[in-house]
Amino acid sequence: MTDHMLTLSGVVAGYGGGDVLQGVEIGVPKGSVACIVGPNGAGKSTVLKTISGLLTPRLGEIHLDGERIDNKSAADILGRGISQVPQADALFSHMTVRENVLLGAYIIRRQKALVRERYEQVAELFPIIADRSNQHAGNLSGGQRRMVEFARSLMLDPVLLMLDEPSLGLDPKALRTLYDSVMVLKGSGKTILVVEQNVRFGMRLATHGIVMESGKVVTQRDAASIIDDPELAAMYFGGQTPTRSA
């Protein structure tokens, strides 16, 4: 669909001959924050790996802004504008904030003027990049480290940013920083796809919600309607509807 930045159609994929994804159908609207939630083993992170080209679908198709990408390499998909912030903390603690951010521009490193321009842009979005540019990343708090990871992922000016369990291991203060950071990204016009185990936090972030179970999409619609659905709450959210309050 033309209003979707990303579509997955009948995607079947997995590991070592076992299919984790069982005909996944997903549409991520342009400019949205779409969040995939569901129980452990639902296939949430496998969706991200398949989109990024780390896994090749056995069946189905993936389109980015109307162009088929499931037959492309991971490097090609990255070059076409899909960037991912991994689940685990992936900063190099012994390197400075600036050095960590510049690693995100590795494939365009010879275009020095463009790299400088992109760095200035991400520093404007996330002032900590300028304020702590020469500080070692290992001295930052959890929320600050997430901001640096986001900034690094933006150095290629992606059309789609994927976040894998961004809230993992963060305390309440860091969660607030994370929430604000995602809102900054959304305000800059980025399309964002989030996988979250923390359903309440994920649905607070999202404009578009996707619920998965056993490798299939159970429902996908406006995040607010998912939050207010008592049947979904009973089945997937521990019997309590998530809240949008801070």
Largest sheet data: 6 strands, mixed
* Helix segment tally: 10
How much of the sequence lies in strands comes to 25-35%
Uncertain runs are none
Order of helices and strands: EEEHEEHEHHHHEHEHEEHH
| Overall body shape | globular
Kindly state the number of beta strands.
10
Q: How far apart lie the N and C ends?
A: 34 Å
Strand order of the largest sheet: 6-7-8-3-9-10
What structural category arises from helix and sheet content? alpha/beta
What is the overall pLDDT average? 91
The helical percent reads: 25-40%
Query: Radius of gyration over alpha carbons?
Result: 18 Å
Structural topology:
Elements: E1 4-15, E2 18-29, E3 33-37, H1 44-51, E4 59-64, E5 67-68, H2 74-79, E6 82-85, H3 97-102, H4 112-125, H5 128-131, H6 142-153, E7 160-164, H7 172-187, E8 191-195, H8 199-205, E9 208-213, E10 216-222, H9 223-227, H10 230-236
Parallel strand pairs: 3-8, 3-9, 6-7, 7-8
Antiparallel strand pairs: 1-2, 1-4, 4-5, 9-10
Helix pairs in contact: 6-7
List keywords for this structure.
six-stranded mixed β-sheet, alpha/beta, globular, 35% helix, four-stranded antiparallel β-sheet, 246 residues
